[in-house]
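Appendix C: a fully annotated inverse folding record. The material below is reproduced so that readers can follow the format used throughout the book. The structure is listed first as tokens, followed by the designed sequence.
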């Protein structure tokens, strides 16, 4: 059963009506379902357990960039999640949320000296390194702290993820990772750097993948490398296959997590039996969207209905600064009226108040609306709030976590005064 459903013509998240949330906390507001978050995380965790991977055999490192609210991180941490971070800021969030730094992996092409220091201070599990200069810098920073950094190389398997070009990362001409052909020599280079310890290999080919074929193709290439490295005496403790599978925004039918992991573990088990006397290798994942994407909606209120000669506009109080995905990727998000009305529907573009033609949230949707009605923009839990900005001096939305019949404010709405609090006028 979905955690986002109508009861008596009114849209609920779990046992709380969105109307109630709007009344208490205002709009625009991101609303997340704890039950959905939990179910989505457990889809990965249970599939790992089913294939004999308890906490030592697999680690799910939730991708913090998809939704980094402390309460969300705390829910996942309590379920045993690790975390995939891409900045020092994300590490501080994980720590503030009660996450275990020994389950943190640090991805990203541009780690600064300060970020490396912070991560080494907290003894994170692993740095996913993306270039030779980064390896050298990490070695120097670790040396200056008299520490050894555990590293994995992000290898670029040159596999086409068949997704939106902006979120495809595993092709040769992307800025990410180390080229497949350079991987072996780069691992050999690490062996000569005294403050680095090789522990793994990782890749990430893109996001919103509906089919697992490209992921399994990437896995095969990684397996090939692990074997070559092993022949050279370099043994790895883990392999990390990157982000999770895609989600349904409209009518997409993504591969179910359990099916994908079944195929992945079956391949890995056969390989370990054939080539490594059955010696296990730890498997890590970095899912974001598939855990939080469909666990959240953006709740917004219609300000005006504008009926033009060729188009009708529903002008709402959320905008491109709150949910950037439509403007940035022409992404499609479902739109549901919070109250189901028995009036004649019309076709609307749902747009925000920002002064840009690109400020739209949904186009050509048939909706039965009146002014002041509430709308839920669906599938907004991932890459929604984390990509929000303050363009047009708009405070970012409030965030609410629903848990059964409770709605808890987990981030206050930003005020205009918050936005200029760090600014000053020269005397
Ligand atoms: N690991 C790495 C290294 C990544 O770069 C990403 C996402 C993930 C894991 C998580 O992937 P997921 O499981 O969420 O597919 N802003 C875009 C998505 C950007 C994804 C960036 N990398 C969007 O709104 O669609």
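Designed amino acids, in order:
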């Amino acid at each position: 059963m979905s955690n986002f459903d109508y009861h008596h013509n009114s849209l609920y998240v779990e046992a709380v009506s969105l109307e109630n949330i709007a009344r208490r906390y205002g709009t625009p507001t991101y609303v997340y379902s704890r039950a959905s978050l939990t179910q989505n995380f457990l889809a990965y965790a249970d599939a790992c357990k089913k294939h004999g991977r308890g906490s030592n055999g697999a680690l799910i490192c939730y991708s913090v960039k998809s939704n980094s609210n402390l309460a969300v991180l705390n829910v996942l941490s309590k379920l045993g999640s690790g975390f995939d971070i891409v900045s020092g800021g994300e590490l501080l969030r994980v720590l503030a949320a009660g996450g275990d730094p020994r389950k943190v992996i640090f991805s990203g092409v541009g780690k600064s000296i300060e970020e490396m220091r912070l991560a080494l201070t907290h003894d994170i599990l692993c740095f996913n390194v993306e270039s030779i200069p980064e390896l050298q810098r990490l070695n120097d920073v670790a040396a200056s702290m008299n520490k050894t950094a555990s590293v994995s190389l992000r290898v670029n398997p040159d596999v086409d993820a068949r997704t939106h070009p902006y979120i495809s990362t595993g092709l040769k001409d992307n800025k990410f990772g180390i080229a497949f052909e350079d991987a072996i020599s780069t691992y050999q280079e690490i062996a000569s750097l005294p403050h680095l310890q090789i522990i793994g290999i990782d890749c990430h080919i893109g996001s919103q993948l509906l089919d697992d074929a490209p992921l399994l193709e990437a896995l095969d290439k990684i397996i090939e490398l692990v074997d070559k490295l092993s022949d050279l005496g370099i043994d790895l403790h883990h392999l990390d296959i990157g982000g999770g599978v895609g989600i349904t925004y409209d009518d997409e039918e993504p591969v179910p997590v359990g099916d994908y992991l079944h195929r992945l573990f079956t391949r890995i088990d056969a390989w370990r039996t054939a080539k490594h006397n059955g010696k296990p290798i730890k498997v890590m994942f970095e899912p974001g969207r598939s855990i939080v994407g469909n666990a959240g909606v953006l709740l917004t209120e219609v300000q005006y209905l504008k009926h033009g000669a060729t188009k009708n506009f529903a002008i709402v109080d959320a905008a491109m600064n709150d949910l950037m995905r439509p403007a940035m990727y022409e992404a499609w998000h479902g739109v549901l009226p919070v109250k189901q009305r028995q009036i004649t529907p019309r076709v609307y573009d749902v747009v925000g108040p920002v002064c840009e033609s690109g400020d739209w949230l949904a186009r050509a949707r048939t909706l039965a609306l009146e002014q002041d009605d509430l709308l839920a923009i669906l599938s907004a839990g991932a890459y929604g709030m984390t990509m929000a900005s303050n363009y047009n001096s708009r405070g970012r939305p409030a965030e609410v976590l629903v848990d059964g019949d409770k709605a808890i404010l987990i981030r206050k709405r930003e005020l205009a005064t918050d936005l200029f609090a760090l600014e000053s006028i020269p005397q």
